[in-house]
Amino acid sequence: MTSTEVITGLKCYHCGQPCEGTLWSNDKVFCCYGCQTVFEILNENDLCEYYSLDQNPGAQQNKVNEESFAWLDDKDIRKKVVEFDSPGFARVRFYVPAIHCISCIWLLENLQKLNKGVLRSEVNFAQKTVGIDFDPASTSLGSIAIALSRIGYPPQVNLDSQDHGKKQNKDKSLVLRLAVAAFCFGNVMLFSFPEYLGLDHADRHLMRIFSFLNLALAVPVFFYSGADYFRSSLKSFKQRQINIDVPIAAGLLALFLRSSYDIISGTGPGYLDSFTGLVFFLLIGRWFQSKTYESLAFDRDFTSYFPLAVSRLTKDGWKPVIIYELRRGDQIMVRNMEIVPADSTLLDDEAYIDYSFVTGESKPVKATRATIVYAGGRLVGAPVTLVVEKKISQSHLTTLWNHDAFKKVTESKYQKTIDKAARTFTWVVIYIAAATALYWQLYRPSEMWLVLTSVLMVACPCALALAAPFTYGSMLRVFGRNQLYLKNADVVERMASIDTVVFDKTGTITHGSHPEVAFHGALDTDALRAVKLLTSASSHPLSSIVSQSIKVHSAGKILHFKEVPGKGIEGTINGHLIRAGSAGFVGARPNTDTENAYVYVAIDDLVKGYFSIRIAVRKNIKGMLQRLGRKCVALLSGDNDADRNKMRALFDPSTALLFNQGLHDKLAYVKDLQAEGKNVLMVGDGLNDAGALKQSTVGIAVTDDTGVFTPACDGILAGERLGQLDRYLALARTSSSILKTGFGISFFYNAVALSFAVTGHLTPLVAAILMPISSISVVGFSAMAVNFIAKKKLQNNNQNIRKSRLRSPS
Amino acid sequence: MTIIILLIGISLTIAVVFLLIFYWSLKSGQFDDSYTPSVRMLFDGKPAKGESNAQKKLGK
């Protein structure tokens, strides 16, 4: 069944893209052969429940290259990829970025129906991975990978895809310490109840038992849950710096020793309820602060997207080899959409290389025979052979990671507010403690030690230590809800200090990979269909952009297809000679504008018009730049200055516009600004910003799809939210005043508790009441203040974004 | 009053057992993925032939 008219309202059964009804199978309509193929595979294997779990779950298909995963079966490579290997059983974990809905989980967990050697597969949705147990005797790693990509879930196997799990162990140990503290805290509270209720005279004997049980429960809290605070304060002593952990450790030590003394000597019930509660609250603060986004990676370098292996020419033909083993002079073959792993020279006549990962520039570059192709470029078009010039570690791109900016620990260069406060606080506590000790020594020496420990105990800045995690942790969550994903809570604090903003151009200010294509002239649907068919036959980058932009389905035959390199393509479809290409090729008057690319179309030697391909500036950028004003210091672009006028109109006159900036130039520029004492926010997207992102005080990567590659950075921002960047900065700045108010509240409680302590009236009951109240009020205040202010500041924008979403049909 | 001591001993033992169970579940990875299992339990094995009622209910 075929139809010549576009049937409106038809949607591809697989991917949900609008399509016309030319491809039918089992009474279902499809937009392309790829989608139809996936449906047929699923139908054959009785897996059509896939379509009933979620609406149009599929992704539009590209052709699967059967050879593209064969290298996984090479012995050395296989060893690197699999988690466990034995003759009868093996396990592998693939990263599959296409996982996005319930149907994906269902299909991937039924993989054994598609590949008989698969024993079991299990999806981790948050991490977008699928763990596969298989029998190496009846299937191979390569064929599993091909089966996955055939149904639309190609796995991504990169150099660094094996290093999951380290971070998780760290989180687990924190949760465990928290669990132990919670357990002990709860039980200590129970055993302290008789004390709270004043039943101590009823049964002296029982009270003693309760006290010793408390002590037993406090021991694991002291040695296990709270151990980090002692370790950290010891470290800070060695570095001769006082951080917040020092007064905390002193307070914990005083509490524990004093309580142990009281209990063992039988002079009192001790303060162990306060002690365990304190550790519990402190750990909750840490846990709250450590929110992470599992599906995002903030520490990627080039290894994350370099292929694991490449085909190398050996005596026995083409053999896959791990890219670290490439030597100078090796001949390698790179296929369509694969990445060139090392700086090499081209052996073939010509190739189109897409450097968008490296420069952010989406227009592919043409390379001719004997020119150098730099590592990181993605090949577009037919396979080419290259000769390796430099090892991976010495390539132009990878040398960036040897730079100092990547070696030092960035966190240490910033003086945290909390540590500044802690320093003042510690000195005040030391003075008060000394003065109190002196006073009691003179008037009642027998009670000097008791009062001194009381002072240290209540001076423990628990509420102070909680103010920061809860302020920054709530900020982190608010930003996350607004699609700015920060690496950790410390970034919020650094964001608050930003006074200088530097932008990248391509991919950041402009859309990187989605050019705006418009047709100027007149073409009817049949002609459009023919143009799409013609352009899809060529692998020239402009052809594929034009072909993708035409949203009608086309199928048919091209006769006399001819591609004239550098000029255009022609072919006869349905009896009409169709030409597409440069103005000279089709016989049109050339356009004088050089900013955009143009593809002219002629049918039967009659010029019908042209496609203009324009890299568009993101929405709402101008307003944001105006509000930033002089804070926005520079635009650093890797491209030539063809866009200078367009950018000039966008930016404040004081902004420097710098073009032709390479990897190292951008890094140096940011470093120079920092040398002037500026706190720089770098906003970029490509690998060529990686150095600057790392060097800057805060580096934010902009991306339209959080699943795709982003370079190492402190935060990832969704592209559509870039217009609100200034508001995010303003919100981050309010965090410091919220934090200071929190400090004020906690100081107030400390002062009240200290007045009890210095006069010698601190009973266990007073301590047990004061400490939780102070902690809870500080926590409640910071969390509520952040959410309230964020609501006020960001509300209007969210409404605007929702409106603009409604307007645009996509 | 000795009965209280006995009861406390039992209650503490049970509490410690729960703590150990939590430790075991954490180590064995039960908290690694908090989303997928909630979806997985809703997939039921499909009958050999024909459309099941469950499928119709789930479908659009």
TrEMBL record, chain A:
Question: Pfam families under this entry?
Answer: ATPase-cat_bd, E1-E2_ATPase, Hydrolase
- Establish whether keyword Membrane is in the entry: yes
Could you tell me the Gene Ontology terms of the biological process aspect for this record? copper ion homeostasis
Which keywords are on file for this protein? Cell membrane, Ion transport, Magnesium, Membrane, Metal-binding, Phosphoprotein, Translocase, Transmembrane, Transmembrane helix, Transport
Give the PROSITE patterns listed for this entry.
ATPASE_E1_E2
A single GO molecular function, which one?
Answer: copper ion binding
The record's listing under InterPro entries reads: ATPase-cat-bd, ATPase_P-typ_cyto_dom_N, ATPase_P-typ_P_site, ATPase_P-typ_transduc_dom_A_sf, ATPase_P-type_domA, HAD-like_sf, HAD_sf, HMA_dom
Q: What is this protein called?
A: Heavy metal translocating P-type ATPase metal-binding domain-containing protein
Protein source organism: Chryseosolibacter histidini
TrEMBL record, chain B:
Q: Which InterPro entries match?
A: Cyt_oxidase_maturation_cbb3
Keywords associated with the record? Membrane, Transmembrane, Transmembrane helix
Query: Record's NCBIfam families?
Result: ccoS
One family name in Pfam for this protein: FixS
Gene from which the chain derives: ccoS
Q: Which organism is it from?
A: Chryseosolibacter histidini
Q: Mark the transmembrane ranges.
A: 6-26
Which top-rank group of organisms is this from?
Answer: Bacteria
Name recorded for this polypeptide = Cbb3-type cytochrome oxidase assembly protein CcoS
